[in-house]
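FAQ: What does the model actually see?

It sees only this:
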Amino acid sequence: MSITNPFQPEIIPTTPVPLSPVEYRTVQILRQQGSLSRTAIAGEIGYSASKITAVVHKLDDAGIIEEKEDSTYTGGRRARDLFFDPAYGYLLSVSISKDKLDIALVDFAEQVRVRRMLPIRIDEGPAGIMQSMRDFVFGRLERFDIPSDKVLGVGVTLPGAINQASGTPFDSPDLPGWGGYQIVSFLRESFPHAVVNVEKDANAMAFAELRKGRGKDFEHMIYVHIDESVRAGLILDGKVFRGISGRAGDIGQILLPDGQNLQSLNSLVDTIPLSGHSTNTNTAALEGSSDAIAIIQQSGELIGQVLSTMITLLDPQLILIGGRATTLGHPFLAAIRRSVLDYSQSFSTEHLQVELAPLNDASLIGMMAMNAENIFVPES
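And it is asked to produce this:
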């Protein structure tokens, strides 16, 4: 039996907001597809225009959505599209990497209102870093006169797996000293009116591509992020797959027949001697550096071997390669593709596409999308 503190008023969370099934479906369609007309929404849901009008009026009265004139006017009766009312609330997304905090506060129509990068050292531990984030955000909320209860979603991404049961990071070389830290509890205490999400960065990146990038037309996708470590985000049936503990996609330690693993990529890339006008490995390769070309081939070979196993297990439609890989460019991508074809069954790659991830700031974008989609829940 819990004891209520009589000196502290009870805070009733603002979110998640329950909606009727058809209202919930309407907001999900708008969040995933962007501004739409009533006719388009009715077609997606299978409702008549009159029925969807009643739903729209209800959401409009609640301040969730608003009508706006279509900017692509071509004559005749001007169409009116629906999207979210920016004044309904705000979403806070925070991306944590080894050396910086990337903080973005967006309104409910997904327009950025505050964006700031703060230098950190992740090995200093979570307490000071999270407090710095909180202090900065509350300072900006006060400056722009935004009540804290209007922050409806708060999401943080980290370069490592998150225990889904406890909402705490696993201890790892990427998160030294973060293991077991109650990050979800800290966020809920700091933002008691908000839905809270804490996610591995690769999962958020995969979700960003699913909602806003190359993966919009796919339901089965693997996102491979190459940085200080190598980790993957898995999209299965249009949803992030985390596994029972949250460690799904932790591919960096998969052993290959020669005893190597994908963590070897960093030491390989770092050994490439750059000369002349070279600024990165790809430039060196284009300038004819035999060392750079060999490293690109070897790294692509390792990635392709691991991916071939994942392809057999998961049968994806799309694989996106992001992180440091994008600086290695198309020679690296070509090496990965060759290796995938060499180590995979032909039937498993017949319809598979392997590409470089196109989105910048994918971790932040993905968390923003996760925040937005968790604000509303269907009434049971």
